[in-house]
Amino acid sequence: MSLAGPEPEVLVIGGGAAGLMCALTAGRRGRRVRVLEHANRCGKKILMSGGGRCNFTNTGTTPANFLSANPHFCKSALARYRPGHFIDMVDAHGIAWHEKELGQLFCDESSKQIVAMLLAECADAGVVVETSCTIESVAGLPGGGFRLQTSRGRQDAASLVVATGGLSIPKMGATGLGYELARQFGHAVLPTRAGLVPLTLSGKHLEHYADLAGVSVHVSARCGKARFDNAMLVTHRGLSGPAILQVSSYWEPGKELLLDLLPEHDIQAWLLERQREQPAAELRTVLADVFPKRFAQRLCETWLTSKPMRQFSHGELPAIARQLAHWPIVASGTEGYRTAEVTLGGVDTDGLSSSRMESNIVPGLFFIGEVVDVTGWLGGYNFQWAWASGHAAGLAA
């Protein structure tokens, strides 16, 4: 038994951001396209993204905003499908949007509008979308092409696009199917781990912060050469917030993680100025001018000495300044895929064409989106990779 309707030329496994973009692009070329989505609706991660408003792109997208074993791989697709191209589609559908910060664009109303737009574009391009369709097996056909056995019957096609996503947020239906298919067809899969994810603390490191849960501090988080200035949020289990989520993609156990707790200040000059102007004020009072009060008090109770500013010697304040600018965080791990926004690693780009996203091993086989070893920063970059890689494959599949 095969699925109803004319036999497709292109099968897309996965009805998320990359899969739908690929499908509508191929459909516009006149290709007969069918999307197979195992969930009961398409675009579940789109729907939950950006607090329900979908951070659908970032106007400042460059290849430097992505992590990959091959940092050059993403350049071709990103150059050919830029944020402006997606914004044009959003505008054509009358979807109101706004820039929040740092080039991040969000819907004014709801992420449902982005999913509806993609499905409408698919429908206009003649794409058939099948939901609640589980893939049972995939095989290459002797003369080329592919045969899929699904929960809704058999399906053959000349081109197969794997847009299954990564392992992040399993409650949204994430599985490792894409990696299994890659290996089945001879592709290497690089080790995967959770990215854009809160960090956990343990032991005394957790005790020092845990009762500050809910406190937010603007920091610069550094790991190796990566540096991100943004908010850090203390949680019951560790640290989160944009700065921590960003740096988490670069951090691994054993790597040094440092915070500049006052990135917008010359801390030494500021402390010396406070000493001159508020000699009777205690350090914790001075720090409470630039930190949440509870955080300032904890700094002084646990790590620093609080006494009137006049009592600090010539060498003490510079030492405190260095401590605040190079604040060590000893993370025990991450919250894992449960809360991770993305999956690092994945299908090795060495086996793929950077311009077509097509396998160099099996003609007609494509891998796009998060399943590939290309991972963006927080702030709309991963959606832009989904649009760009999906578009590249859609032009070739």
From TrEMBL:
Per UniProt, residues of the RsdA/BaiN/AoA(So)-like Rossmann fold-like domain are 9-394
Q: Where is the RsdA/BaiN/AoA(So)-like insert domain?
A: 193-342
Q: Which cofactor does it need?
A: FAD
Q: Name one Pfam family in it.
A: HI0933_like_1st
The protein's UniProt keywords, in alphabetical order, are: FAD, Flavoprotein
Keyword Ribosomal protein set for record: no
Q: What is this protein called?
A: NAD(FAD)-utilizing dehydrogenase
Please tell me the species this chain comes from.
Answer: Arenimonas donghaensis DSM 18148 = HO3-R19
